[in-house]
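Quick one, T. Sequence first:
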Amino acid sequence: QVQLVESGGGLVQAGGSLRLTCAASGSIFSVNDMSWYRQGSGTQRELVASITSGGFTNYADSVKGRFTISRDNAKNTVFLQMNSLKSEDTAVYYCKAIVTTILKRLYQYWGQGTQVTVSS
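Structure tokens:
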């Protein structure tokens, strides 16, 4: 079994910053792509940013230049640095990881979500 634990959400004023962390643990052989998604009230879950194990990144147009995704492969951890936050960034943020387990099987796992609220 694999668990993803997110932290770092909270309430911040517009223009402020937050850093989200997601740590994967359990029966892991390797962690492949890691991503952050978000889901606002009444909206569909959307991709915010992703990063491969080699460090290649991809961002939603709405966060380019403001958010930075990074990872620590030794700790199976992914980060999302969010700067210049806007009220429209308010959402529950979810971490997703593509994991090869110790049984050499590939699975997709999701974290429980962390709330980010940006006040204007």
